[in-house]
Structures are given as structure tokens and as C-alpha cells.
Write a structure and sequence with these properties.
The structure holds two protein chains of two kinds. Chain A is an alpha/beta fold. Chain A is 29% helix and 20% strand. Chain A has a six-stranded mixed β-sheet, with helices on both faces. In chain A, strands 2-8-7-4 form a four-stranded antiparallel β-sheet, with no helix packed on it. In chain A, strands 11-10-9-12 form a four-stranded parallel β-sheet, sandwiched between helices. Chain A starts with 22 loop residues before the first strand and ends with a helix. The termini of chain B are far apart. Chain B is mostly helical. Chains A and B meet through strand 15, strand 16, helix 9, helix 10 and helix 13 of A and helix 1 of B.
Chain lengths: 445, 305
């Protein structure tokens, strides 16, 4: 079975909510829709206080190149536009809407039938994707229309669909592939048309064979789509690792996937593309997984963007008593939340409750030079060395040792027998070295 | 509501710990220890128990009174050092020499550098080198292996296979005897079979990878092969078969490679240079063993280690 070549770890999967049918979370009294979804510029508010909005109405316009539109996920009255905390703990502007009823915009097609035919031109598709405010739903939330706009002089050869879902605990993509197989395949064919490729490969880890079979069934109805089961290994869902696993091509250091002719999209994103292009429905809801070792009923839920976490937790059975840490996203790369007064952003894939017994990190010991971090690094870096440099603030040495290639997957910290905070120092180094590199560029120009 | 803990990702850990690593190496050494018990009997027990206990005690006291740091005995690294040290000693070594070896191993080889992880050499090997220089006679009189041996200090002695080879003595053990361990030598190193069993266990547990041992063995195989083909008379008068040479060495290497080169210190962390690095150091080692100054021991492995 295919997988990436170098490094990787296999954390306990703990996919408690696998195969659980999605349920719909009821509308909350108030939603807080962030105008910035983890990456890029915040969009500019298009509504003002007291305005009545409908579901699907544009409330934030993209500001700059790497930015995406934001739409209202509920109908009601804008109560205020104020700063709200995101999962990183930073404050960014958000639109607070008091929910009144559930009144959708007329142009959104809410009929259950599946629309298979798409007669739009590539540029029209990309425009529609941009208007619908679609971002990468795997977690990085990079605006999708930017990824679809192939830079001049480059040519896309293959579309890669990421259904790996290599993070432990998470099952939202898995469930989506089981329930919306046909829509995902149509979404893929639309994306293939948009970037003008004849071939698409869907990579799914082999612990989800039911999803593989389901997508294979639907893939037969379209041309050029192939489903490939992958060996279970973290971080398979990382862009560069997935490209290598599926095509054998290696993305050069510092380059984007388009350099090797690949465009990568998440399965949830392709579903959002289908809804936007065929049903005129902007990105206003997504599946999230609510899970954890002591959660009585782990499950997958459709939620509107902007729903407060407290509302979801209430609806899904409350927070377990022994919770020590709440994580948005998977346990390997997710964010530990400073408080529960947050709301669902476009990139929120799960709410994970970690029992207090597992919340604290172990005591840090000396490095015993076992080289486990080196052998498990999927990017071929030397985490122990980068951490030593980071501790001593030797930024130039960090840059020489390719700190910017780190994908922050956390395999090194996960595997270290001395509990050393390797990826923390690497992250610290990445941000400092990144600033250094930018400053150097501006000085030159 | 209780307060939430915030920390950067990852929020899960593999559960690896230094203690687990050390314990898995200790388990891997069990077959070799059993062979030592079988061939060297009482002597093996006395030397190994003395070595382990004195290593642990020295570490405990140095940590408590000199470094005044946290107690690290519980990570079992001192137990491992003690066992590895005893494996490197003849089983008829007097107790007081073993205790001195343990003091040097722990006190000089490890704690003076700041404890586990900061030591540039393997502590057990520092202890052995010190003893070899200080007590060359006692350290080179190897007891003759005997099933269920009950003698300790007055054991009959014999040469190791390599010194027999070097000095053109006639009584070289058969290949099979060398493989299972029926020959004179350090108590824990005689049986290639037992050490290979431990090696397989460590591979299985993923405590180590195959790269270092295989690269070293392969280099020796090729180098001895070249020398043998150039001049069989000078280099291997009694051995017409290269594999025999590898086998004679493997009772040293099995040990060196699987346990010492991986005992966390000689392990160069550069994945891509693994092969190159180990080939080089093995060549240095090989050539020095062949030179006229060389004696049939393997201390140069330690220094490069």
C-alpha cells in the first residue's frame, strides 16, 4: 500500500466517532462569525449594526489577495461588530448576529436532488468559488480560489484530493465521504474543470475502507477519478507527504505543490465547491467531530459557522467532568483553547476533550541522542539540533538547517522519550527566521 | 468550571520514556547474560551483581552529595551501565577491581559531564578502558568456559579467539563454538548467537534501527575480504574462510554494535550520514587492529564511539 517515504509516526487512532451518522446542531440564539478564518487578512464588514440579514447573505468582503468572503450562516439582526477571540487566542473583528427564524436567500437551491451537470467555464467556476468564500477545510483555511488560480507559466497536471484524515480522533471527513460521496465526486469533476486537468486522485487512509469503497462506486460515474487507499501513517494528510504518497513526486524545499504539477484540495472543500457551484450555497456550515476519551457519545455534527462552542457542547451532552484541555482540531496539530467563549470558524474540524490525566506534558529530561526525532521527521530535518539552536537563539544556524521546511506536524515531540518540546522551539524559530527572511527581502528591494 | 490547560500541539505523546528504552535494552541483554551464567557460573554472578550494585550506589551518592540534583537512579541507566560494564570484564576479576571500574564508569564517564545525555563516551566503556590500562594482567586472563562453572578467582584461563588468531596459536575454537559462545572472553560477549537474539529484540521493539550494525559489519566484511584476497598467508593463516573472520569478530561486535554503538552516545544523529560515518570509523578501527602496535582488543571502537 502506498505511503510517503520518510519518517512519520503512528499515534493511537482513537476514532470513537467513526461511522456515527451526522446530526444537525440546532440554531443558537446568537452566532459570532469571525471575519478572519485563521489565515490571511480579515475581510471587511459589509453590514452594520441593526441590519437584518438572511442566511447566505454576504457580510464580509474579501480584503486583498489571500482573503475570503464571509457569509451569514443564520437569519436575524446584526447586534454588533466587535472583536472576538479566535482559537489562537488573538482578537479579530467578528459579526454578532441575533438569530431570528431561518430565512434563506432566494437564490440558494435547497432542494435535495443532486445536480450532476456543470456547464460553467473554468474562470466562472473560480469566480463562484471565490464569491462563496470557500477556504481549505482541512485546517489551514487557505482561500480555495487562490489555490485554483494557477500562476502564469505553471501547469497543473493532477488534482489531488485529501481524504487521508490522519489526525487521531477526527472523523468529520470520513463521515462526509460516507454520506456525500456523489456530491464529492461531482465537486472533484468541477475542480478538475476549473484547473483544466484530466486526472484526479483521492487519497484515503486504509482505516476508512468503507469510505474508499463508497467513493470508488461514485468515481466510476465520472472520468479520470481514481481512489487510492493509503497505509495509515501520520502526517499523511500534509500536502507534501500526500503528493509524494500518491504520485511519487517530491515538492522542492520552499516551493508550492504546483511546482510538481499538483493541486491539493481537501474532501470537505470539494463538497463545499459542489454546493457553491451547483446549489449557489456559500460556505456557511461544516461538519465537526465532538469527541474525547470520556465523552459519553462522540459524534459528527453539522454546524453553522459562528455557532458558539458552549452551544455545541450543551447540545452534545456537556463537557465531561474530568476534562483538562479542550482542543479545536486534532490532538497532533490542534489548538488548545484558552476558553470556551469561542465560535466555530471555517477551519474548525473538531472539539476534542482531553482528560486532565493526559493534559499535562511530561517532565523534560536531557536529550539522550537516541535520534528518534530524526528518524521520524517526515521532512528529513534534525529536530534535536533545531531545538538546541532555538534554545540558544542561533537563528542563522536554524535557517541553514532548513527550519522553514518544518511542517509542524509534531511527530518529533510525540516520539521523544525525554519529552523534549522539540516542535515548540522549532515553531519559535520558524516565526523568527521567517521575519528575518522577510526583512532581508524588503531591505534588498 | 475548572480551568483549562493550554499548551502548544501536540496534545498526545507516544508514552516513550528513558526508562522504557533502558529496560528494553536490559531485556535484550538477557540471552547474553544467560550464556554468561552457563559458561562462567559463579564468577559471572559475582562480577555482574557487584558491578550493577556499585554503579547504582555511586550514581545515587554522586547525585545526592556532589551534584545535589534530582535523583536519576530510577531511569535504570545506571543499572544498564553496570551490566554492560560487567559484560566487558573477565568473570574471574576480583570484586575490588570491579568496584573501581564502576566508580570510574559512573563518576568519570557519566556524572562528571552532568549525567545521562551529556556524556561524550559510553560510561561502561570508560570504566573498561580504565581497568584495562590499570590492571592489564587481571583484565586479560580470561577464564576457560565450562558448563556450570563454580570456580571464581581460581578459574582456569585461556586466550580469546582473537588473540589466538593474532599470535598464531593453534587452539582456535571451532566456528560453532564461537557462535554459541564456548570460548574464552569477556563474560557477556562470547556468544554471538545470544547477542543477535537481543539485537533482533531491539529491532522488533524499534529501540534501534538496523543501519548502524549492518553498515559496520558490512564494512568489516568487505575490508577483511580485500586483505584476505591480497595476501591470505599473512592475514589469516589459520582461516581460509572469510566468514570465519566475521564470526570471530562478531562476538565483539554483536555487543559493540547492538548495545554500545546504540547506547545513545556514539549515535550520530545525521540520518543521511549514517552509512558513511560508520564505514569510516570501522575502517579506522580495522586498520589499527591490523597494525603492529595493535593488540587484539577493541578499545579503538570506544574512542571513536
Amino acid at each position: 500500500m502506498k505511503t510517503f517515504k520518510m519518517g512519520g509516526v503512528h499515534p493511537p487512532e482513537n476514532k470513537f466517532s467513526a461511522g456515527k451518522k451526522t446530526k444537525i446542531i440546532s440554531l443558537p440564539q446568537q452566532v459570532i462569525i469571525p471575519l478572519r478564518h485563521y489565515s490571511g487578512n480579515p475581510s471587511v464588514a459589509e453590514v452594520s449594526r441593526g441590519e437584518i440579514v438572511k442566511v447566505g447573505q454576504l457580510i464580509g468582503r474579501a480584503n486583498g489577495f489571500i482573503s475570503a468572503n464571509v457569509h451569514s450562516s443564520v437569519s436575524g439582526k446584526v447586534s454588533k461588530i466587535d472583536n472576538a477571540m479566535d482559537a489562537f487566542g488573538y482578537k479579530f473583528p467578528a459579526v454578532f448576529i441575533d438569530v431570528i427564524g431561518d430565512d434563506w436567500l432566494d437564490e440558494v437551491d435547497l432542494s435535495p436532488e443532486v445536480k450532476r451537470v456543470c456547464n460553467l467555464e473554468p474562470h466562472e467556476i473560480i469566480k463562484k468559488v471565490a464569491e462563496a468564500g470557500i477556504v481549505g477545510l482541512g485546517g489551514a483555511t487557505f482561500p480555495t480560489h487562490v489555490k485554483l488560480s494557477i500562476p502564469q507559466g505553471k501547469k497543473a497536471e493532477v488534482l489531488i484530493i485529501n481524504g487521508a484524515e490522519c489526525e487521531p480522533y477526527l472523523t468529520c471527513d470520513h463521515q462526509l465521504m460516507l454520506e456525500k460521496g456523489e456530491e464529492i465526486i461531482i465537486g472533484i469533476s468541477i475542480l478538475m474543470k476549473a484547473i483544466r486537468v484530466k486526472k484526479a486522485i483521492i487519497g484515503i487512509e486504509s482505516n476508512k475502507m468503507d469510505a474508499v469503497l463508497n467513493l470508488e462506486k461514485w468515481a466510476k460515474t465520472m472520468e479520470g477519478i481514481e481512489v487510492v487507499p493509503l497505509k495509515v501513517k501520520y502526517p499523511q494528510g500534509s500536502e507534501k507527504q500526500l503528493i509524494q504518497a500518491l504520485t511519487g513526486r517530491e515538492v522542492p524545499s520552499g516551493a508550492l505543490p504546483i511546482e510538481v504539477g499538483a493541486v491539493v484540495q481537501n474532501v470537505a472543500t470539494t463538497f463545499a465547491v459542489y454546493e457553491a457551484v451547483q446549489k449557489n450555497k456559500p460556505l456557511i456550515e461544516r461538519i465537526i467531530t465532538v469527541t474525547g476519551k470520556s465523552v459519553p457519545e462522540p459524534g459528527n455534527y453539522w454546524v453553522r459557522i459562528g455557532t458558539p462552542f458552549t452551544h455545541i457542547i450543551e447540545e452534545t451532552g456537556g463537557m465531561p467532568q474530568d476534562t483538562g484541555k479542550v482542543v479545536a482540531g486534532g490532538p497532533m496539530m490542534g489548538r488548545a483553547l484558552p476558553s470556551l467563549d469561542l465560535s466555530v470558524a471555517k477551519g474548525t474540524s473538531s472539539i476534542l476533550f482531553i482528560p486532565s490525566s493526559e493534559s499535562k506534558r511530561g517532565k523534560v529530561f536531557n536529550c539522550i541522542r537516541c535520534a528518534k526525532c530524526v528518524f521520524h521527521c517526515p521532512m528529513g530535518l534534525e529536530p534535536y539540533l533545531l531545538m538546541n539552536h532555538g534554545e540558544k537563539q542561533m537563528w542563522e544556524n536554524m535557517e541553514e538547517n532548513r527550519v522553514m521546511d518544518c511542517i509542524e506536524c509534531g511527530s518529533c515531540s510525540f516520539i521523544c522519550p525525554s519529552n523534549r518540546p522539540l516542535v515548540d522551539y522549532i515553531r519559535y524559530g520558524k516565526s523568527t527566521v521567517g521575519t528575518m527572511i522577510r526583512n532581508r527581502k524588503t531591505q534588498k528591494s | 468550571m475548572n480551568k483549562l490547560i493550554v499548551s502548544p500541539a501536540p496534545h498526545v505523546h507516544s508514552g516513550n520514556s528513558i526508562r522504557k528504552e533502558m529496560v528494553s535494552v536490559l531485556i535484550a541483554l538477557i540471552p547474553a547474560y544467560l550464556v554468561a551464567l552457563y559458561y562462567f557460573g559463579v564468577g559471572a554472578i559475582i562480577v555482574s551483581v557487584t558491578s550493577v550494585i556499585s554503579c547504582v550506589i555511586f550514581e545515587y551518592f554522586i547525585q545526592k552529595f556532589l551534584i545535589k540534583g534530582e535523583n536519576t537512579v530510577s531511569d535504570y541507566s545506571a543499572v544498564l551501565t553496570g551490566l554492560l560494564l560487567s559484560f566487558n570484564l573477565p568473570s574471574n576479576l576480583p570484586v575490588w577491581i570491579v568496584v573501581i571500574g564502576a566508580l570510574v564508569a559512573i563518576g568519570v564517564g557519566k556524572m562528571s559531564f552532568g549525567g545521562l545525555g551529556n556524556n561524550p563516551f559510553n560510561p561502561a566503556l570508560v570504566g573498561r578502558v580504565f581497568l584495562l590500562i590499570s590492571f592489564p594482567v587481571q583484565m586479560t586472563s580470561w577464564p576457560r568456559p565450562m558448563a556450570w562453572n563454580t570456580s571464581y578467582l581460581d578459574a582456569e584461563t585461556s586466550a580469546t579467539a582473537l588473540s589466538a588468531l593474532k599470535e598464531h596459536l593453534g587452539n582456535i575454537p571451532s566456528l560453532f563454538d564461537m557462535f554459541v559462545g564456548n570460548m574464552g572472553g569477556s563474560m557477556g560477549e562470547v556468544s554471538a548467537l545470544a547477542l543477535l537474539l537481543g539485537f533482533v529484540y531491539l529491532l522488533f521493539k524499534r529501540t534501534i534501527t538496523w543501519h548502524i550494525p549492518v553498515s559496520i559489519l558490512l564494512t568489516v566484511f568487505i575490508m577483511t575480504g580485500i586483505f584476505y584476497l591480497v595476501n591470505p598467508q599473512t592475514y589469516f593463516p589459520n582461516y581460509t574462510f572469510i566468514v570465519g573472520r566475521i564470526n570471530a569478530g562478531s562476538y565483539l561486535y554483536g555487543h559493540r554494535l547492538c548495545y554500545f554503538s546504540h547506547d545513545k552516545n556514539g549515535n550520530d544523529n545525521l540520518r543521511h550520514w549514517h552509512w558513511y560515518y560508520h564505514c569510516c570509523y570501522q575502517n579506522v578501527w580495522f586498520l589499527s587492529r591490523r597494525s603492529i602496535f595493535c593488540y587484539p582488543y577493541h578499545e579503538c571502537v570506544y574512542t571513536t564511539n
